[in-house]
From TrEMBL:
<dbReference type="Pfam" id="PF03054">
    <property type="entry name" value="tRNA_Me_trans"/>
</dbReference>
<feature type="site" description="Interaction with tRNA">
    <location>
        <position position="334"/>
    </location>
</feature>
<comment type="function">
    <text>Catalyzes the 2-thiolation of uridine at the wobble position (U34) of tRNA, leading to the formation of s(2)U34.</text>
</comment>
<keyword id="KW-1015">Disulfide bond</keyword>
<dbReference type="GO" id="GO:0002143">
    <property type="term" value="P:tRNA wobble position uridine thiolation"/>
</dbReference>
<dbReference type="GO" id="GO:0000049">
    <property type="term" value="F:tRNA binding"/>
</dbReference>
<dbReference type="InterPro" id="IPR046885">
    <property type="entry name" value="MnmA-like_C"/>
</dbReference>
<dbReference type="InterPro" id="IPR046884">
    <property type="entry name" value="MnmA-like_central"/>
</dbReference>
<dbReference type="InterPro" id="IPR014729">
    <property type="entry name" value="Rossmann-like_a/b/a_fold"/>
</dbReference>
<feature type="region of interest" description="Interaction with tRNA">
    <location>
        <begin position="147"/>
        <end position="149"/>
    </location>
</feature>
<dbReference type="GO" id="GO:0005524">
    <property type="term" value="F:ATP binding"/>
</dbReference>
<keyword id="KW-0547">Nucleotide-binding</keyword>
<feature type="domain" description="tRNA-specific 2-thiouridylase MnmA-like C-terminal">
    <location>
        <begin position="276"/>
        <end position="350"/>
    </location>
</feature>
<keyword id="KW-0067">ATP-binding</keyword>
<dbReference type="GO" id="GO:0005737">
    <property type="term" value="C:cytoplasm"/>
</dbReference>
<feature type="active site" description="Nucleophile">
    <location>
        <position position="100"/>
    </location>
</feature>
<dbReference type="Pfam" id="PF20258">
    <property type="entry name" value="tRNA_Me_trans_C"/>
</dbReference>
Length: 374
């Protein structure tokens, strides 16, 4: 059986290739090229970079498998970078890694694997591939709770599940590094990538360079009072409390709502940022919709725990949930990922949180002089 192994130049995908070779698969190593010819300084340096491609090729030589560099620059710009900026312009907070896995890695790569005569695609994600009693393939949380990456894979096409392998999904990260060290793989001690690959430095600075700035008001959610000024809703995210530059800087305020239409940032107390539910769009389900449980768990950010919720409505386009307990800063643009225990059921993009906002005052007061620096 032939398998196309996605190699990023990191330790997880390096060990993935080695384990597949040990298991007797005919392994083809491949890396997707995303960086443009005019690659900016400090972008694509930790992953998906020319240096990472060199390291991935070297690891493929160590493991004894062929290696190819696949050109996906156009798809990356169209599916990842463009929508990333569009979402910020809409006052939303995107997660480009979800889009990358959904629309590039597990769509384009599966298609390429079939062209190369491979039966499977494999990656270094910490996800478990489980076959149910009915013989259907399910994705479950990885055994290392600190590294579980099912959150990023909710958009995987359901018909692609049987053709995807996750060899490190049942391992913990320290063991993966041990395997790499035992084999003398040059990526054994390579640090992990933490940043968005195409963003140099801070996301806020990158967005400021790419999107036009426009002065607007920061308003108090309960009264409509103008309490500050800003240069664009794209520089804020729900729950944010630092860097707001409010007139009364001693008062702790959180961003509660972003309205790019009126170019208004709404702020309030912590309690004003607690939501009772959410509405999601662009849904993808990894089971028949009729089998979606009414009571399930949902995870609304990668670094947060899943919480219990009730499905109020679900169809092929989206769903609406009510949380068992109110949740803080449910941000439109992020993913709402559905689980039944460890099993990944699917997900959608958060379109809105469930909460009514007060109407804007009839006449907005003039802003005070001076605009806070970003």
């Amino acid at each position: 059986m032939r398998v196309l192994c996605a190699m990023s130049g990191g330790v997880d995908s390096s060990v993935t290739a080695a384990l597949l070779k040990d298991a007797g698969y005919g392994v083809i190593g491949a890396m997707m090229r995303f960086w443009p010819d005019d690659k900016r300084t400090d972008t694509f340096d930790s992953c998906c970079s020319p240096d990472a491609a060199y390291e991935a090729r070297r690891v493929a030589e160590q493991v004894g498998v062929p290696f190819y560099l696949l050109d996906y620059r156009e798809q990356f710009q169209r599916h990842i970078v463009g929508p990333f900026l569009d979402e910020y312009a809409r006052g939303r907070t995107p997660n480009p890694c979800v889009n990358c896995n959904t629309k590039v890695k597990f769509d384009e790569l599966v298609r390429k694997a079939r062209m190369l005569g491979c039966q499977y695609v494999a990656t270094g994600h910490y996800v478990k591939r489980v076959e149910s009693a009915r013989g259907e393939v399910e994705f479950h949380r990885g055994d290392d709770p600190r590294k579980d990456q099912t959150y990023f894979l909710w958009g995987t096409p359901r018909d692609a599940l049987p053709f995807i392998l996750f060899p490190v999904g049942e391992l913990e990260k320290p063991r993966v590094r041990e395997i790499a060290a035992e084999r003398g793989l040059l990526t054994a001690s390579k640090p992990e990538s933490q940043n968005i690959c195409f963003v140099p430095g801070r996301v806020q600075d990158y967005v400021a360079e790419q999107l036009p700035q426009a002065q607007g008001f920061i308003r108090e959610i309960k009264t409509g009072e103008v309490v500050g000024e800003h240069l664009g809703t794209q520089f804020y995210t729900l729950g944010q409390k630092k860097g707001l530059g409010l007139y009364q800087s001693h008062r702790v305020r959180h961003v509660v709502h972003l309205d790019p239409v009126t170019n208004t940032v709404w702020v309030g107390d912590y309690e004003d940022c607690l939501w009772t539910g959410l509405r999601a769009e662009g849904a993808n389900y990894l089971l028949d919709l009729a089998e979606l449980p009414r009571e399930l768990e949902v995870q609304v950010r990668y670094r947060t725990r899943s919480v219990r919720a009730t499905v109020l409505h679900a169809d092929q386009h989206g769903f609406e949930l009510r949380f068992e307990d109110p949740q803080f800063a449910v941000a439109p643009g992020q993913s709402a990922v559905l689980y039944a225990g460890p099993r990944l059921l699917g997900g959608g993009l958060i379109a809105d949180h469930v909460r009514e906002l007060p109407a804007l005052p009839a006449a907005a007061p003039r802003p005070r002089s001076g605009v806070p620096a970003l």
